[in-house]
Amino acid sequence: MSHPILEMKGITKRFPNVVANDRVDLELYPGEVLALLGENGAGKSSLMNVVAGLYRADEGEIFIRGKRVEINSPRDSMNLGVGMVHQNFMLVDTMTVAENIILGLPDIPFRVDMEKVNERIRELSEKYNLQVDPESYIWQLSVGEQQRVEILKLIYRGAEILILDEPTAVLTPQESKELNRVLQQMTSEGKSAVFITHKMEEVMAFSNWVRVLNKGRLVTVKETQKTNPKELAQLMVGRDVLFRLAKKERQTGDVILDLKDVQALDDKGLPALQSISLQIRAGEIMGVAGVAGNGQKQLVEVLTGLRKITGGQIRIFGEEMANKNPLEIINCGVSHIPADRIARGVAGDMSVAGNLAMKCYRKPPLVKRGILHPRRIIDLAKRMIDMFRIDTPTPQTHAKFLSGGNIQKIILAREIDACGGVLIAAYPSRGLDVGATEYIRSQMIEQSECGTAILLISEDLEELMTVADKIMVLYEGRIMDILASSEANTEQIGLLMAGVTEGKTAVGHA
Ligand SMILES: Nc1ncnc2c1ncn2[C@@H]1O[C@H](COP(=O)(O)OP(=O)(O)O)[C@@H](O)[C@H]1O
Ligand SMILES: [Mg+2]
């Protein structure tokens, strides 16, 4: 076997309240993909940030191409041929693709020939089938396209060791397939990659080797072919995980959420929702399937008071709620798990406990005779931290210091806890590890058993099939069909998502 291109020995990284990495070893071989698997907070990003020059290890050694190296800055790392795509992208919105790609390059001449840069980007983007226009502005691009830019940036810089930090968390299933293809192409040219994820299926599909981290420690090294998702899940979580949720047959009640002929425009003033009619009953979970960008975002926004409708009716508990403001809608019993959780979901400068209690501070038992009880807020927070296994040093820690996955858990815990009869959940398990995903799914089922009407938007068909009672498919702002999930299959849903009905292609709006 060849020598590792990257080797880390005994890496320890401490933060004030936590040991993020505890004597971790890692080996990456040329032309191979190493999956780094672990739950939120296991120490995956920290370990790779050490190689990328963002963090300095407290102990341990790094070897690249067999030579001991000191990495003191991102520049050192780049010069050694290492490139990392971070969990939260680091692109400048107001600059073009090409400008972002050359930004920070060590040898930019005083005058840049942008035509040449554009040409080179077009070449690379064709070679790797990473389609993106070098002259577009970042703000014009979807998340999937922004990720292509991040990857092109590394290729442009000649990186030979690529580190991708949870790259599929923001992608559609089709986009992650595309990413897998790009990775295979790069490894066939002798480049190597570390692929960070918490999804076992991706480990199986993408990698040659897998290393599992748990609470900062390396728990196992396996050849991917010689393991399976069940074993990996168990190693990662440290216990057996249920993959199938038990869903009881249940009675549904009155219609709680009732949409008739709802129409809305997108930010550019084009039709985004066209005569959407649907009903969700108490105790029912309605799944929404569709390729991102087919009206899901606008549907959530009109239901939570963030976007006006231009026609139709929205009744919640029998009351007309169209075009009411978000607070009126919350008071009507609607909880919302937003897709963009970091930006919309938490107050970063507030404590974890404060964030958890945010929605119930007007109600008893937190308030007694008009007075807020800090003790009770902490108690409530402790209970939720425990239930959702939120990884925080203390309930008083500022939310912004938590990892992305743990910030998500705060929002989920709060919204589920405060739910008053209707739950709008946009991609609730996106970015969560298996343990947390399992928990959130079972919580939604439990909530519906208590009579909550739930709208569940997800890109994970498996999730929709196991959790939802019915699945509606959105395509170009219309409902293609609503199917009972017990009778639906993924192929049928996939065709509807592509706008195909009974062998015909749906006529889109012109
Ligand atoms: N910059 C930081 N300051 C303080 N603590 C941090 C920092 N970065 C990570 N941590 C902590 O280190 C631990 C590991 O985090 P991280 O490496 O982000 O995990 P993962 O990427 O596996 O989710 C967590 O407990 C996290 O809160
Ligand atoms: Mg991470």
Structure description:
Residues 503-510 have low confidence and may be disordered. The protein is globular and about 70 Å long. β19, α15 and β20 (453-457) form a beta-alpha-beta unit. It has 510 residues and is α/β, with parallel strands linked by helices. The chain has 3 domains: 6-237, P-loop containing nucleotide triphosphate hydrolases (Rossmann fold), CATH 3.40.50; 245-333 and 420-429 and 452-505, 3-Layer(aba) Sandwich (Rossmann fold); 339-418, no CATH class. α7 (200-206) crosses α8. 32% of the residues lie in helices and 26% in strands. Adenosine-5'-diphosphate is lined by residues 15, 18, 20, 38, 40-46, 391, 401-403, 405. Adenosine-5'-diphosphate binds at residues 15, 18, 20, 38, 40-46, 391, 401-403, 405.
List the helices and strands and how they pair.
Layout: E1 6-15, E2 18-28, E3 33-37, H1 44-51, E4 59-64, E5 67-69, H2 74-79, E6 82-85, H3 97-102, H4 114-127, H5 143-156, E7 161-165, H6 173-188, E8 192-197, H7 200-206, E9 209-214, E10 217-223, H8 229-237, E11 255-265, E12 271-281, E13 285-289, H9 296-304, E14 311-316, E15 319-320, H10 326-331, E16 334-337, H11 341-345, H12 352-357, E17 367-368, E18 371-372, H13 374-387, H14 404-417, E19 422-426, H15 434-449, E20 453-457, H16 461-467, E21 470-475, E22 478-484, H17 490-497, E23 500-501, E24 504-505
Parallel strand pairs: 3-8, 3-9, 6-7, 7-8, 13-20, 13-21, 16-19, 19-20
Antiparallel strand pairs: 1-2, 1-4, 4-5, 9-10, 11-12, 11-14, 14-15, 17-18, 21-22, 23-24
Bound molecules: adenosine-5'-diphosphate and magnesium ion (MG).
